[in-house]
UniProtKB/TrEMBL annotation:
EC number in record: 2.1.1.67
Any GO MF annotation of the entry: thiopurine S-methyltransferase activity
The family this protein is said to belong to: Belongs to the class I-like SAM-binding methyltransferase superfamily. TPMT family.
Assigned keywords, A-Z: Cytoplasm, Methyltransferase, S-adenosyl-L-methionine, Transferase
InterPro entries for the chain: SAM-dependent_MTases_sf (IPR029063), Thiopur_S-MeTfrase_Se/Te_detox (IPR022474), Thiopurine_S-MeTrfase (IPR025835), TPMT (IPR008854)
Taxonomic source organism: Atopomonas hussainii
Amino-acid positions noted as binding S-adenosyl-L-methionine in the UniProt annotation, renumbered to this chain: W10, M45, E66, R123
Keyword Lyase: no
GO cellular component: cytoplasm
Localization (cell): Cytoplasm
Listed name of the protein: Thiopurine S-methyltransferase
Catalytic activities: S-adenosyl-L-methionine + a thiopurine = S-adenosyl-L-homocysteine + a thiopurine S-methylether
Class of enzymatic activity (EC top level): transferase
Amino acid sequence: MHLDFWHERWARNEIGFHEGTPNEQLQRHFHKLQLAANSWVFVPMCGKTNDIGWLLEQGYRVKGAELNEGAVLELFAHLGLTPTLTEHGSLKRYSAAAVEIYCGDIFALDQALLGHIDAVYDRAAIIALPDAMRQRYSQLLIDITEQAPQLLICYEFDKQKRQGPPFSVEHDELQSLYGGAYQFQRLERQILPSYLPDDVDATAVAWLLTASH
Ligand SMILES: C[S@@+](CC[C@H](N)C(=O)[O-])C[C@H]1O[C@@H](n2cnc3c(N)ncnc32)[C@H](O)[C@@H]1O
């Protein structure tokens, strides 16, 4: 999928994925990662999500990655923070207080630049990527976070009724992408009637992934 696809969606404000309030499953389940205060949480492909503000309020520090610079600037404005900017190859890093966002293609990020991560919160990131990219993305996340545990929120729906993104990512696929690195615990299945465009029903599934070795 071309990066312009996402820039165009942001330019046209076609951001139905953006939730107005912190994600409910995040609030219900994040404590199950059992993180200490000040832990670093990585939020890949974060957009301008309100989930980052919620994580900060809980006493965590947040690193994120997002392609669209306008989204990153809106995120900081909404948090009431003025970031400083540094450049790292093709990536820009915006940072303020306990937040660092890498702006650019997530596939340009490496472990040395990202630094230590205690946990990953993936909501609508892996499911935003087409099949071949999900394979690359899952390996990237394992590598750059050194297999940090994850709270992963996926959406499942009838693939005949809707082409992605989002893509319906189910347990068998997660097992093939992450099964070599993680054990899975399904925390919740929440049925969301007419959640997707064209009245397509979806099920939000929250997974806890913990390193298997
Ligand atoms: C479906 S949205 C989810 C955003 C956020 N996680 C949320 O819950 O609101 C996917 C996001 O990934 C970003 N994105 C897409 N491809 C990317 C890439 N290669 N590197 C970094 N971000 C990317 C898009 O700009 C978009 O903001």
